[in-house]
Amino acid sequence: MAQTEDIKSEDDVISWQIPEYRGEEKTKLWYAVYSLIAIALLTYAIFTQNFIFAIIIIFAAVLIVIFDGGHPGMLDVAISDRGVMVGKEFYNYDQIADFFIIYEPDAGVKNLYLEFKRFAKPALPENEPNRYSWLFWIVNFARTRFSIPLQDMNPIIIRRNLLKYVKENLERTTIPLSEQLTKLFKL
Fold first, then answer.
1. Backbone CA torsion sign across 5, 14, 79, 101
2. H-type alpha helices, the chain
3. pTM over 0.70, yes/no
4. 166, 152 in Cβ contact below 8 A?
5. What is each CA distance from 12 to 7, 81, 179, in whole angstroms?
6. Strand partners, 96
7. Contact between 39 and 60 (Cβ < 8 Å)
8. Of 148, 26, 178, nearest to 76 (Cα)?
9. For residue range 14-35, what is the model confidence (pLDDT) as tens digits?
10. Cβ–Cβ under 8 Å, residues 84 and 114
C-alpha cells in the first residue's frame, strides 16, 4: 500500500486494492419490482416479435443474478511512471485523455475518473493467454470513462502523481450521471 507521504521519484508506484464491482445490497422488494419490469419488457418484446430485445432482457436478468450471487473479488490498482494498471488491464498514459477526482467523504464519494481517448485498448500482460484479448477489446471499445474508488488513498498524492503524465479536467466537479443512476437503481 502507498504511504500518505509525498511520492519521491517517477519510479515510485502508488498501489491499492479495490472491489471488482460495487455490489449494492438489494431487498426482496427490489427483486420483485425489477422482475415485474423484466417480465413486462419480455412480454413486449415477444408481442412485437423483437426477439433480439428479448434475448438482451434475458441476458441482463441472468447477469444480475450471477453477479448478485457472489462477493466481488479484489483488484490491484497501480499508478506508475508507465501508466495505470487495474487488475490485468494496463493503460498507457497516451491512451488517457484526462482525469478528475471527486472527493466528498461525507457523501461517501472518493473516486478517481480516467477519461480515455477514443477506442483505448488495454494491454494485457505478456504471460496471459491471448484467447480472451478480443473480449477486453469489445468491453473497452465503447468505454470512455473508468471509475476507480480511492478507498483510503490520499487524493492529493494521486493527483500530484497523475499530473506528471496526464492533464486534469477541472471542469468535472460532480459524479457522472451514469454513476448516479447506477447507484439510484442499485445496479
1. negative
2. 28-47, 51-68, 133-141, 155-162, 177-184
3. no
4. no
5. 7, 8, 31
6. 116
7. no
8. 148
9. 999 998 877 667 788 888 888 9
10. yes
Contact between residue 82 and residue 150 where contact means Cβ atoms under 8 Å apart: no
Predicted confidence (pLDDT) per residue in 67-79, tens digit:
776 677 899 999 9
Phi/psi of residue 94, nearest 5 degrees: -70, -10
Are 143 and 178 in contact by the 8 Å Cβ rule? The answer is no
CA angle (12 as vertex; 10, 15 as ends), nearest 5 = 130
Q: In 87-172, which ranges are continuous DSSP H helix?
A: 133-141, 155-162
Count of H helices and E strands in the chain? 5, 8
The amino acid at residue 48 is: T
Amino acid sitting at position 152: D
Give the cell for residue 76.
Answer: 490491484
CB atoms within 10 A of CB 36: 10
> What distance lies between CA 60 and its chain's CA centroid?
18
